[in-house]
Design goal:
The protein has 204 residues and is of the alpha+beta class. It is built from four helices and twelve strands. A four-stranded antiparallel sheet has the order 3-10-11-12, with helices on both faces. The longest helix is centred in the first third of the chain and has 11 residues.
Amino acid sequence: MVTFRALTMMWTTTLPGFTRNISPLHWHSLYSFVQQRQDFIGTNVTKHSNPLNPRTVLKDMLNQAPYKNARSAATYDQDLRGVSYEIYGFMNNDGGTRTTTFYYTQSVPSGGIKKSDRTVQNYLHKNNALMLKGVHVGPTQIWLVVDGDRAGSGAVNNYPDKNDDHGAAGANILFCDSHVQWVKGGKNYVLSYETSQDENRSSP
């Protein structure tokens, strides 16, 4: 097992460049809602899966644990090995927006807009869903790290359901200004998600 300090150091090497803009406040906020998870990170290392990234990283940091609880003793390792959160490093990934991101000396085309100190300041919402087009949003409304989706019967992608860490009740969200907020499931979750992500989403 590895410490949270080690995880944060490894996180900066496993993820694209936007993580280099994260302040110590973000790490502290992240710790406040991942410390009680049952998922675990082993000490096994590997070359990063992205060929542009030359780093050797903790292998389990590249995968999200599929379940919040082990289905059985026999599946404990495969069910719980990995991270318990998701990184929301891009916004406006609606299928139509393409930008170029600089990643390990290379220009890489990406769907959506990479979140950074510059792009999350006074962002102008582009899609019509929930009457948000033209609304200015900022770091206090834009998501950065989210309780991860879990596998299971009836799972809904990017929306709280019975399989997730807190069931359908909601999820903890780390925002770009470094505050962590509980976002309740239902219409409120969809509104907060779309305000942050600008993907033209109006329902689960």
